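Re-run with default settings, no changes from the original entry. Doing this only to confirm the output is reproducible before filing.
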Amino acid sequence: MKKTDCFFLGKIVKKYSFKGELLVKLDTDEPELYEHMASVFVDLRNNLVPFFIESSQLHKSELLRIKFEDVDTEEDADALLKSGVYLPLEFLPKLEDDKFYFHEIIGFKVEDKHFGFVGIIKAINDSTAQSLFEIDHNGTEVLIPMNDEFITKVDKKKNTIFVDTPEGLINLYLND
């Protein structure tokens, strides 16, 4: 299984018990969807390795207490700390029409109400306080905040996101 065929579910953040149990910090708004999984992939040295789950339960809000098969000691658990946890893309829940996962919209066109065709989404920058569309406009990068107030429509059939950005925002990137 390759990472490109999977989505990031969370990260193993700490041990829970001396019996090999771990806590996974889930990267989701709906942790309850992932409480009763049979297996996951764990990123070990850039390889996704399947791990079968003996038991799991939600712990506090976004933490999943998990016991993997054949991880029975603190030493076994130590080897997995700080590793990413992944699931195949087909396990992502379907979203309503106007909602999307970041990986789904790479390659979508962006149309602005006033500017017109802005360009093609080449990436999503989610390392800032607010996630940004990274758009290629004829070789020039244009950044538009992924703000619900700016996004007017998501047309998955036409692979187009319609936005209404503040006047002058797009031109900030295009005027030298």
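The longest strand covers residues 47-59. DSSP finds two helices and twelve strands in the chain.
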